[in-house]
């Protein structure tokens, strides 16, 4: 059997939790990127620490790749059941590279590679995954030196023996992969480009966390919940190099109150969580609304209700983020669509929160935070951070109406200036003391809500992609940016365009002109009720009839979405 | 000292519309706390933050001249913790009722002691929910009849002192507002104590608690003697369980245990509070580029 794969290859590794799939993912993506390929990786996993069936998809391409595909060109299963787990995605076109002496699979496209026995020979079964890495890199005929260098960097601190065993495991696999390639059984033809060496390879989690650092985030308070905890872990890791206060709170209620306490004292604090954890934070959100505290909330969505599918993806938290909290107060919700947006919007979130004294959300999801791909240099020259708190005078009043601009009164912090800073969760007067005076109540409500108008200065417009004279407009938000874009590129129809919202609330007004121009609007979302379509209806009166909704916990694949959008064009 | 008199009093003190019932123990706490603060030269209304939750007791910051954060029911401690952790230059006192601190805020009560952050936690313990009109609180005595516990409280009362000692709190005291001098000294020591300090402060609720009145507290409490050694943890635990006559004073004190903020690397080289710091963009750029 001879097969040539051109331009774009999808490699899937699958096995049980605990078999080192994540290590393979990292090694392969980083080495391939260093060798000048575009890579994309995403994983799907079960909510367990050992066993089950997990997989990671790695796309390697000569062009940028940023989304998930169903097709599997090459599969490396580490267990028998993992092949069944992948279902229809494994078909007659899929090449399977496996240690079939132990797996005993029946498949005509099988390449039996003694991964396990090689590992055992080197001294330990745990090297099986590194042998597999070697095989793949052999197929690409990567310079063996790059592999050695990377393994040395990665495992150097574990001692020479571990490094040399890893190198041995990788080289043995490498030889086999190279043989497949040289005798024409599996040929991969993807061109590499030297200049990609300098690209960054980061995940959605990294993009949010680095954006937080760039936004001068100095403290994070969180209670672990997948998939939000990655940002907590990242910032804890960054705290080895930067001054960040990281505290694992006793629960989400504590976390959000801590973050608000941090801002009160002049820090720039954030929380990170998932929908279920955020549900507990709701009362704290209202507190931020009432005392006009800045706050940054990273909410990584997953399927609900309740704990739902803990490790899967969804866009079911939009209504939650927009409507959470009791009473009426302004907020802003960003939903980045790609890694660059995640970085810049998170950075911006801290400044917007500070400037308007409101809570700002970064709404991501499991698929988004767990995906990696090449990112060009992040431009830090554009980064501008401003701390908006003021030095107070003796007669300072926290909620001074006369000094308020667009509802924003100068924010003092304790012990900076001569004034006192008093905040109160009850309705309060200008000084911050609680009041039951109903006339003051009206003034304060109006003051807070006035910020909605002011916020317009900082609106992030939706991003348009496609032909200006479109008839069909696909609208999407958050993590569907890349997959919609790739589907539209595939369809290549001049009547088709996309409008992606990375600010979902307040709804950017300039989106209306795009919406009214379309003959048909096609909404794409990862939820069952079309939450964003409803938001558009509520904000603009425009009714969206056509919805492509997916809510089984998996992201849209390029093929699937391409087909579904095509159907809508009939 | 004399020139510091009334520095924590509001200018229009006389006209204040205080929400407490006449005769309530909260008035005494307000006066004692003001006096204690006035006597502490290191503290000013500016470098001091009073954090509270919700309840009658929790309104206390509004009758004071100082920085104040009157937050949510049960959530004073997380706020107080974060204020201190992000700005260790501030003196932080978290003050609220027993329902707030031990009921709604129970989880935070337990975990903030473990943090040993340098804050003082004063609990107005009236053994009842005042603001919501007299339901049982975690410290209500068994048998107490309320509009909700119509046949009397069945639940075993919460023992904040024993819990705090067992949980590693480094300063645990009990006081009674009727005993002004002693209470003031305990407050001063608690604030000066390095680490988390708890004062469970008995405060008669004259409206809803007809059992634990001024007379009852007078009769059922006694002052720990000069010979009492608060550093003896086992003896302190035993003392925490004395019920027929309840001891007042510092029941347990452990000195020298590092505080939360002392252990943070962010303050090892640089003592600046976080609001004075900014990210070094060049360093960040180098760091990001190392992720290739
Ligand atoms: C989340 C929440 N639940 C309930 C309440 C209603 N509530 C206000 S004060 C209070 C109890 C106060 O009791 P305590 O803390 O003992 O203070 P006291 O009024 O006795 O001084 C309750 C239940 C609230 N404000 N918030
Ligand atoms: S209800 Fe009780 S505790 Fe509250 S103010 Fe009145 S007397 Fe004091």
From TrEMBL, chain A:
Entry-linked CDD domains: TPP_PYR_PFOR_IOR-alpha_like
Pfam families attached to this UniProt entry: POR, POR_N
Keyword terms of this UniProt record: Oxidoreductase
Signal peptide location: none
Residues of the Pyruvate flavodoxin/ferredoxin oxidoreductase pyrimidine binding domain: 211-446
Every Pyruvate/ketoisovalerate oxidoreductase catalytic domain range: 17-174
GO BP terms in the entry: response to oxidative stress
Molecular function (Gene Ontology), one example: oxidoreductase activity, acting on the aldehyde or oxo group of donors
This protein's record includes keyword Disulfide bond: no
Keyword Magnesium among UniProt keywords: no
Protein name: 2-oxoacid:ferredoxin oxidoreductase subunit alpha
Organism: Petrotoga olearia DSM 13574
Lineage, broadest ranks: Bacteria, Thermotogati, Thermotogota, Thermotogae, Petrotogales
From TrEMBL, chain B:
Record-given protein name: 2-oxoglutarate ferredoxin oxidoreductase subunit beta
PANTHER family xrefs: 2-OXOGLUTARATE OXIDOREDUCTASE SUBUNIT KORB, 2-OXOGLUTARATE OXIDOREDUCTASE SUBUNIT KORB-RELATED
Pfam families: PFO_beta_C, TPP_enzyme_C
Top-level taxon in the UniProt lineage: Bacteria
Organism of this sequence: Petrotoga olearia
Keywords: Iron, Iron-sulfur, Magnesium, Metal-binding, Oxidoreductase, Thiamine pyrophosphate
InterPro entries: 2-oxoacid:Fd_oxidoreductase (IPR051457), OFOB (IPR011896), PFO_beta_C (IPR032686), THDP-binding (IPR029061), TPP_enzyme_TPP-bd (IPR011766)
Gene3D superfamilies reported for this sequence: 3.40.50.970
Thiamine pyrophosphate enzyme TPP-binding domain mapped to chain residues: 59-200
Database matches in CDD domains: TPP_OGFOR (cd03375)
Annotated ranges, domain Pyruvate ferredoxin oxidoreductase beta subunit C-terminal: 205-268
The protein's required cofactors: [4Fe-4S] cluster; Mg(2+); thiamine diphosphate
NCBIfam families in the cross-refs: PorB_KorB (TIGR02177), PRK11869.1 (NF008821)
Organism classification: Bacteria, Thermotogati, Thermotogota, Thermotogae, Petrotogales
